[in-house]
Amino acid sequence: MGTSLIYRNRIVYELAMRGLYGRHYGARYRAIAAIVPDGAGVLDVCCGPATLHARYLRGKSVDYTGLDLNERFIARVRRAGGRGAVWDLHSDAPLPEADYVIMQASLYHFLPEPGPLIDRMLAAAGKQVIIAEPIRNLASSDNRVLAAIGQRFTDAGDGAQAQRFTEATLDALFRAYASRVVEQSLIAGGREKLFVLSA
After folding, report:
1. How many Å apart are CA 121 and CA 86, to the nearest integer?
2. How many whole angstroms separate alpha carbon 193 and alpha carbon 132?
3. Which of 154, 158, 160, 159 is nearest to 133 (CA)?
4. Which end of the chain is more exposed for a tag (fewer CB within 10 A), N or C?
C-alpha cells in the first residue's frame, strides 16, 4: 500500500489542510478543543501530525495519546509531550481507554462499515466520543479529475478510499446512535459535521 505524499510529510499535510479549509482551518480544531476540559484524558485516533494536541490541547494540560499508522506522525506526538502508538485501527484490538475519544476527518477510511470502530471508540471512552467528519470534499466532486485527485492524495497508508460522507449519509450513520448523541453541529464553515456521543 502506498501512502500518499500528504500523509508522508507533516508540512505537506498541514499545507494541504490549510488549502482545503482556508480561513476555517483553525476553527475545526477549536470546535473540538472547546469540548475537552482541562486535565482530561484524551485518545486521538487517526491523529495525523497531532495538530489538535500541539496547538489546541497541550495548553489545557490534557493526558494525550495519539494513534496513527504513520510512524513520523507518532514521533511528533512524542516530541510534543504526548504518548503515541503506531496502530492499525482496522484491527479488532480494543482501544486504550480515555475520558474523551476523538476522531477528526478520518471516519471515511472505515467505509463501508464504520460502525464497529465507533463501537470500539465508545467502549474506550469514559465520558464522550467526539467525531468530526468532512461532508464537503474534493473526493466526492462531480468533476472526475478533482475526485480522482482527492481520492489519490488522501491515502493514509491503508489503501485509497473512494467513498466519502455527505451530510445525509453521515446523519444516517449516527441515527443508529441517536440515544447517545448529545450534540451535533456544522463546523469549519460547514465543511465538517461534529457529533458528540455520551459514553
Report:
1. 17
2. 5
3. 154
4. N
pLDDT band at 9 (very low <50, low <70, confident <90, very high): low
Distance linking the first and last C-alpha atoms of the chain: 34
Dihedral, CA atoms, 23, 28, 31, 32, nearest 10 degrees?
-160
Hey, what's the cell of 198? Answer: 455520551
Q: Which residues pair with 125 in a beta bridge?
A: 98
**Residue 137 CB partners (closer than 8 Å, separation 6+):** 20, 150, 164, 191
Residue 81 · residue 60 · CB < 8 Å: no
72 contacts: CB under 8 Å, gap ≥ 6: 8, 9, 10
Answer whether 0.85 is exceeded by the pTM: no
Which residues have C-beta within 8 Å of that of residue 140, sequence separation ≥ 6?
147, 150, 164, 166
Query: Which of 183, 184, 181 is closest to 199 using CA atoms?
Result: 181
Of the candidates 168, 171, 105, which has an alpha carbon nearest to the alpha carbon of residue 132? 105
pLDDT in tens, 10-60: 666 677 666 677 788 889 999 999 999 999 999 999 998 889 999 999 999
Tell me phi and psi for residue 9, to 5 degrees. -135, 125
- DSSP letters along 108-155, please? GGGTT--HHHHHHHHHHEEEEEEEEEESS-GGG-SSHHHHHHHHHTT-
